[in-house]
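Aggregate trends can hide what the representation actually does to any particular protein. In the encoding step, the backbone of a single protein was reduced to a row of integers, each denoting a local shape. The record that follows shows the chain in one-letter code together with its fold in token form.

***
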Amino acid sequence: MPSAQYIELDQPPEVSNGGNLHSLLREIHASNIRYLNSVHGRGKVLFAEGEPARGVYILRTGSATVSISSIDGRIVTPRVARAGDVLGLNSVLASSSYEATVKTLEPCRTDFIPRAELVELIEKSHAGARAILKILSHELTELTERTRSLLLPQTASARLARLLLEWSKKSDRIDRVFTHEEIAQMICSSRETVTRTLASLGRRKIIEITSDSILIRDNAALNRMAQG
């Protein structure tokens, strides 16, 4: 069960947004704002697109998909949230409904801060307000870069190649966390296209697919494909 506690000032995860998050946590602690700490299993929907924005979630551990839907029901996943991300912030500040659906990809730990508490922090703490603005700016920059990287290439195969390259920045071996349907949602394509393209890459020895991972075997070929 979630419990009301004070924010712990443990060091934020090693992410580019870590400094801004640490500043925000420090101001939350100084203002004695209370929060709900929860642990969620894989597949838990933290909030759904269209629900009233009741507060923000700080993702402390784990990862989650951030997806949006079109009028005809098509789902697109523009990004994957990682530890250190603040989720639902723009919707809360706009006093609107959540703009996306956030679902955990693995067991996660989150801190939930109700909207009223966050608004009070902004009104009382200039440092807290600055930290929140920097977090919003970081989110916008990240989303713009991801859109440019993954959606501008004209072919689905190029978008898939760029996604695989993005995932393999730290290691040539990529854990198979996503289904083909989820990958398709990330590159605005179909599950059938993803399945067909991955199989082709495997036959051409550009990647090696196992039951639990994808190994990048020919990085140069994948880079050439990403330019298409």
In short: The radius of gyration is 19 Å. Residues 1-16 have pLDDT under 50 and may be disordered.
